[in-house]
Design goal:
globular, 12 strands, two-stranded antiparallel ribbon, 8 helices
Length: about 325
Amino acid sequence: MAGSALLNALVLRAPSPSLSSSSKRRSAGAFAFPNPPRFPPLRSARRVVLARAAAAPPGSGGDPEPEDDEWGPEPEGGSAATGTAVAEGPEAPEAREVAELKAQLKDALYGTERGLRASSESRAKVLELITQLETRNPTPAPTEALTLLNGKWILAYTSFSQLFPLLGFGNLPELVKVEEISQTIDSENFTVQNCIKFSGPLATTSVATNAKFEIRSPKRVQIKFDEGIVGTPQLTDSIVLPEKFELFGQNIDLSPLKGIFTSIENAASSVAKTISDQPPLKIPIRTNNAESWLLTTYLDEELRISRGDGSSIFVLFKEGSTLLN
């Protein structure tokens, strides 16, 4: 008994073994990895298995055939396990090239008066830019994109020689001016109207043709003209005359006529109200030769390039486009 009591006393008084700080850290981290291992995601492991199964020859006893993925299809743009997404790239180089070509074309057309005053060098430059744009046409089937064709298009350039006599009216400075040449397409009713607006010191007026078109191919339409329209002249409230203008190499002084035209202005305002109420003059076109065709070789939201009879070229800007500024 005495021996037993002595043994118990020694055990109770003995200092408990102390753990060093390093031992404590090892003990505390017994189930923690100082550098946790990286296990591949389940999908990645499964892809490895599928790759091995595909590479193994038939009947070789390799991995079993893949079953349906219990996690469903992997989402587009990256792995659900890693959350990696495919970043969208910058603007396509071709889009930047097209924007640059259109800007160069706009600059090349400046001062050509829709092609009437274009030099041979200017025409060559314009044709080169047109050809480059046609090879980058974003609408390969324009007649199947009628919403893009629809609307009013302003003529910016043409090589169609039959329009040059009309454009030549602008050679009489300050007297007669071609304000605008446009083509309006109604894709719902398959109609097209070509219109030329003139302005002078006394009035403004327009001449137009109405036509219907039929689709003949993804790029080509056939046009048949129905009628011509002469718009009602709109007299101006004030007559603007130049001090002088040149005619056949001779300067004509108009300052002595100012007094006469002042009295005409007073009568013109009352006459203008009467004339403006009259309907336009419509002339039916019944000839069988009043047909043409048009091939659209480039089309987007603001630019249209077309080719027609006699290798004629038309460059048109959509009404409201920044290309018109």
